[in-house]
Structure to design on (202 residues):
């Protein structure tokens, strides 16, 4: 099987009941440009650019309620599918800049913690979503030199960091005639002319 080249997290889809409050936090407090604003009556789906390849997206559902506060990495009992999301920052100083901005806006922000390969700051958005900001420690490159520090690793873990493609059936290639792309919001988005442009004055 050929390897698959990933570009990052294209988007993480989250939920809000108040898109305007969410825009204020993610665009205006954290500085993520709002790059796609799709919608129709009763439905909005907005994307904020995190990097060249990564975005954070929100559905607005009017009957949704903020999640109960759950601290990052603290175990809970019962069904759960999400703990927190971490966003990389390019400068170490950005962690303290973010801490100052969050606290000035009335949001809780943790102290900066050293995890060996990253330094991390933790907070919550207005929807109760647990978020982390991580600065990769340059001298500890875990992509080039993966680290195993679990004192009781499983046999599967001990197989190493590289993919074991043979662990699953490879499947047959999808025939050309079945490679159909079905319509979504694409035609409307591509045909539209935006009411805003990057760098427009307010």
């Amino acid at each position: 099987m050929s390897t698959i080249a990933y570009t990052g997290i294209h988007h993480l889809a989250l939920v809000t009941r108040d898109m305007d409050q969410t825009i204020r936090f993610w665009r205006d407090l954290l500085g993520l440009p709002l790059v796609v604003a799709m919608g129709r009556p009763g439905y909005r789906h907005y994307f904020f650019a995190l990097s060249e390849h990564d975005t954070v997206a929100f559905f607005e559902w009017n009957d949704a309620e903020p999640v109960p506060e759950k601290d990052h990495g603290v175990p809970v009992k019962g069904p759960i599918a999400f703990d927190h999301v971490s966003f990389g920052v390019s400068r170490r100083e950005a962690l303290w800049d973010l801490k100052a901005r969050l606290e000035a806006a009335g949001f809780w922000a943790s102290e900066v913690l050293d995890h060996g390969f990253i330094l991390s700051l933790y907070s919550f958005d207005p929807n109760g979503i647990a978020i982390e900001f991580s600065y990769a420690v340059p001298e500890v490159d875990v992509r080039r030199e993966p680290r195993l520090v679990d004192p009781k690793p499983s046999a599967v873990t001990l197989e190493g960091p590289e993919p074991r493609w043979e662990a699953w059936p490879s499947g047959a290639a999808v025939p050309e005639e079945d490679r159909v792309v079905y319509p979504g919001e694409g035609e409307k988005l591509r045909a539209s002319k935006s009411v805003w442009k990057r760098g427009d004055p307010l």
Observations:
- The mean pLDDT is 88.
